[in-house]
User: Which sequence fits this backbone?
């Protein structure tokens, strides 16, 4: 038995709780019932590039699952691809807010160091001295360490 709700469907539509493409995929999944990404994509017809909508539909399905308005029901053979794939269906839930990942923060001092290092390296020519190169490398290393710290914290937040 499907866990759907006409009231939830209408509220998502009337309040615009999903982006345009997410809504198109959600509405089609609601109408068709349980379906695979390729089966849904087939109902949209060919895309401009002639490659179909399967990749786009699959990406939106993952986003809908992440927001709680769709779920993976089971694994079965797709009628389009003949492969064992996930079958999706809508839920009776409103979309949940997804926490956005923090953007890496560059301090004004770091920006200044980058500009100085870039200008120095552009204008250095044959007059490069070891101390200047060392300063440029230190600035780039500092940025790389900061970037790695931000990226590792992002990975942690995805799987916690």
Assistant:
């Amino acid at each position: 038995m499907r866990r759907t709700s006409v009231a939830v469907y209408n509220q998502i539509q009337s309040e615009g709780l999903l982006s345009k493409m997410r809504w198109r995929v959600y509405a089609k999944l609601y109408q068709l019932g349980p379906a695979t990404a390729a089966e849904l994509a087939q109902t949209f017809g060919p895309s401009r590039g002639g490659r179909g909508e399967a990749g786009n539909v699959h990406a939106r399905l993952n986003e809908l699952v992440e927001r709680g308005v769709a779920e993976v029901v089971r694994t079965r053979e797709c009628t389009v691809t003949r492969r064992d794939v996930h079958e999706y269906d809508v839920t009776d839930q409103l979309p949940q807010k997804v926490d956005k990942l923090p953007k890496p923060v560059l301090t004004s001092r770091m920006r200044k160091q980058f500009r100085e290092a870039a200008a120095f390296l552009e204008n250095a020519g044959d007059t490069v001295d070891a101390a200047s190169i060392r300063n440029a490398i230190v600035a780039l290393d500092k940025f790389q360490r900061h970037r790695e710290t931000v990226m590792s914290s992002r990975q942690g937040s995805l799987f916690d």
